[in-house]
Amino acid sequence: MKTKITLLVLMLLASITTISQNACSTYYPFKEGAKFQITSFDKKGKKESVVDYEIVSIKNNVATINTKISDDKGKEVSTASYEMTCDGDGISIDFKSLMNPEMLKQYKDMEVEMTGTNIELPNNLSVGQNLKDAQLNMAINMGGIKMNMSIDMVDRKVNAKESVTTAAGTFDCFALSYNTEMKIGIKQSFEIKEWISEGVGAVKSETYNKGGKLLGYSELTSITK
């Protein structure tokens, strides 16, 4: 169960949005009513979960995105929402709002403080470009017992331009990579590879352990602009 929760967190981080294009942002722009679906698989290609996204409102360059997470049988597991801001040069996503709601439920009766830096993606991607790191820190007080949790996205960079095919179609993409370091009692490190297409967003992502072995992947399986 802990492994599945960890992979779900990584999947949400790697496929945070998949939206149609407008003048605000090249890769993650806003369009109210857009819907898209990301399906995650284990390393052998067996479906594990599905995340459905919908942009429900846009106000003052801030989009609210609702998500519904379902298991491999189609049963709803949880729902959540997060915000994404566009400033004309790219997008910024509130890292705190991407925390897995199933994990937050475990701490609902405790004092929880979250701080961090947003995930940023500029409009002018190019091969060889380095992107800003992002971070989430969570301090939990359990009746006097304190616990800290952290998630760091580091070494974010643009590696290549590649064509990727999923159930939703074939897309010309920028291939990105970054390392995710999660510390929940013990430290875990993962490498994420992600493919982003202009006017579409996240098309595919793959998660590897520190030894380079594939743990699972996610793909865009449908999109309605």
Automatic annotation (TrEMBL):
<dbReference type="Pfam" id="PF21347">
    <property type="entry name" value="DUF3108_like"/>
</dbReference>
<protein>
    <recommendedName>
        <fullName>DUF3108 domain-containing protein</fullName>
    </recommendedName>
</protein>
<dbReference type="InterPro" id="IPR049279">
    <property type="entry name" value="DUF3108-like"/>
</dbReference>
<feature type="domain" description="DUF3108">
    <location>
        <begin position="31"/>
        <end position="220"/>
    </location>
</feature>
<feature type="signal peptide">
    <location>
        <begin position="1"/>
        <end position="22"/>
    </location>
</feature>
<keyword id="KW-0732">Signal</keyword>
